[in-house]
Structure formats: structure tokens, C-alpha cells
Design brief:
The protein is α/β, with parallel strands linked by helices. The chain has two domains: about 90 residues, no CATH class; about 190 residues, Rossmann fold, CATH 3.40.50. About 30% of the residues lie in helices and about 30% in strands. The strands form three sheets. Strands 9-8-7-10-11-15-14 form a seven-stranded mixed sheet, sandwiched between helices. The chain is elongated, with a radius of gyration of 21 Å. InterPro entries: Methyltransf_25 (IPR041698), SAM-dependent_MTases_sf (IPR029063).
């Protein structure tokens, strides 16, 4: 009798790099034929890849072949939110959100910024995001106190201050914090997911930051923003789904793209009311520029 547990099957987000599985002992990769990144992932993990005609319908076969082991399954639509872990409980299959992979994704993205802070500074537009800053002026015409999440190089903070706002510069990347300090500005190390925001402030400002959070992570951040300030101004990418990309910095970053309806719903659930929603285009695609105020309790 084989008493070993059934296989632990990981379903990652598309394009997840091998670094995200650092805490896992993956023994094999299975994938649908239409999954172009499977071979690259398997090579990075040092395991074999097996292409299946119907990966979603072959869970039991995979489990029987890898009892007590962990494998990665790509390209299988099981109707669950990714990333996920799928296991057989004895009564049937069950899935849970793979928090370890979500945390790894954020850590990998931050590490990319740590290693490529100077490259990021040289590749982004030099001018501040006037589109978003004009929305701040609508909310705070006489100026106000602003918590900036993900200040990066500090370009937006400088323009906000020029317009009369008082800005607390913060970033989760130490390289950016040190960059801003070297430029003569006070800056604090603050992780939007895990740190206390302090405050209260008049407004939270986040330019090209929320696009690195999954829906669940963004819900947490929006709730923290609602505790910190009555106004919120941010940008995020327009589109659908979650992707990994090495563009511009040659190291992996995770991006979440949003359609307008789900984004509005997420904001409403977190206690925010959209006052302005404008669209913009850049070389990386479509963007939302959003100004929201906190709904009174």
C-alpha cells in the first residue's frame, strides 16, 4: 500500500519566473501545448517538462505519478484564481490561493527595482505625470498634505511641492529611497503592503505603483489608503489579466492590468467613490488616471 500523500500541484500566474519557486521543491513541470514559457520555466527549475493534451483533465494522472511531490501545472483552466495550489483531499480536489507565490512575485518585482534603479531613472520620462497631478489640484486646490506611495525617483513629488502640496516621499525600494536622499530630499522606506502609513494626510498619491499588486493585494492597500486619507489619486494599467515582463529593465516584474468595471467595483468595495477617471496612452499601453474620495461611514 502506498501511504504517501497525493501530489501538490502549483498553478502559477502566466510567465512566473523560476525565482518565485525558491521555497518549493518542484520535481516536474506539466503544460498545455499552447504554453510557450513552459520549457524556459522547467530549464530554470532544472526539471523536465511534459506537454499534455488535456492538463485540466489529467490531474489524477499527475497526482498518481508524483505522490508526495510538488509539481507545476501550466495552461490548465480549472476555474480558480491564480496563483493556486490544488491538492486531493481524499474526498475530491480542493484549491487554495498560493500566498507564497504572491509574496514571491512582489519580492521579485522589488528586487528588480533594487538592481535596476539607475536604469529605471534613465528610461522613464523626465517630466512628472501632470495628468495625475492636475487631478490632485482638483481635490486640494489650496494645497494639502500628501502621502506618496512608490515615489521612485521623486519626479512627481517635486512637481507636487512646486504646486504647494506637502509631500511625504516613500518607497519600498531602498535604492530609490537612497536616490532621493542623495538628491537632498527626505524619504522614508515604506512597503505599501506591509508598513503602517501613519497620517492622517489629505491625499494618498500613487503613480504606477498599484499595477504591481494582484486584486487581493490591491484591496488591502486601498483599505489602508482609506484609513490614511479622504482622497486618493493613482494610475494603473488598462487591460486584462496578470503578466510578467522583462521589458525596459531586463529583469522580471509582475503587472496586473485592469478593466474599468472590475476596478470601479474594487474601489467601491474598499470605500472609495470615483470622482474622475481619465485614460492615457504611453509606450507601454493604456493607463487609467483616477481621483477618488472616501465614502463617509
Amino acid at each position: 500500500m502506498n501511504l504517501m500523500c497525493p501530489a501538490r500541484i502549483l498553478l502559477p500566474l502566466p510567465g512566473t519566473p523560476p525565482q518565485a519557486f525558491a521555497g518549493e521543491r518542484v520535481t516536474a513541470v506539466y503544460a498545455a501545448a499552447s504554453t510557450p514559457t513552459a520549457a524556459e520555466l522547467a530549464a530554470g527549475l532544472g526539471v523536465e517538462v511534459t506537454v499534455l493534451e488535456d492538463p485540466a483533465g489529467q490531474l489524477q494522472e499527475i497526482s498518481d505519478a508524483h505522490r508526495g511531490e510538488t509539481v507545476v501545472l501550466l495552461g490548465a483552466d480549472l476555474g480558480v484564481r491564480l496563483p493556486a495550489v490544488v491538492e486531493h483531499t481524499g474526498d475530491g480536489w480542493t484549491s487554495v490561493v498560493a500566498d507564497s507565490l504572491l509574496q514571491a512575485a512582489n519580492a521579485i518585482t522589488l528586487q528588480t527595482y533594487e538592481q535596476r534603479a539607475d536604469s529605471f531613472r534613465s528610461t522613464i520620462p523626465r517630466d512628472p505625470n501632470d495628468h495625475l497631478i492636475r487631478l490632485v489640484d482638483k481635490a486640494l486646490p489650496a494645497g494639502g498634505t500628501v502621502l506618496e506611495l512608490g515615489s521612485g525617483t521623486g519626479r512627481d513629488a517635486a512637481e507636487l511641492e512646486r504646486r504647494g502640496h506637502q509631500v511625504r516621499r516613500t518607497d519600498a525600494t531602498l535604492a530609490f529611497v537612497e536616490m532621493m536622499r542623495a538628491d537632498g530630499f527626505k524619504a522614508d522606506l515604506l512597503n505599501a503592503l506591509t508598513s503602517d502609513y501613519g497620517g492622517p494626510y489629505d491625499l494618498v498619491f500613487a503613480d504606477a505603483v498599484f499595477l504591481h499588486f494582484t486584486a487581493g493585494q490591491l484591496a488591502q492597500v486601498l483599505a489602508k489608503c482609506a484609513d490614511a486619507a479622504p482622497w486618493l489619486a493613482f494610475t494603473t494599467r488598462e487591460g486584462e489579466g496578470v503578466e510578467w515582463s522583462n521589458r525596459f529593465l531586463d529583469l522580471p516584474r509582475q503587472f496586473t492590468l485592469w478593466e474599468e468595471g472590475p476596478l470601479r467595483a474594487l474601489l467601491a468595495d474598499a470605500g472609495w467613490r470615483v470622482q474622475e477617471l481619465e485614460r492615457g496612452e504611453t509606450r507601454s499601453g493604456g493607463w487609467f488616471h483616477i481621483l477618488a474620495d472616501r465614502v463617509a461611514a
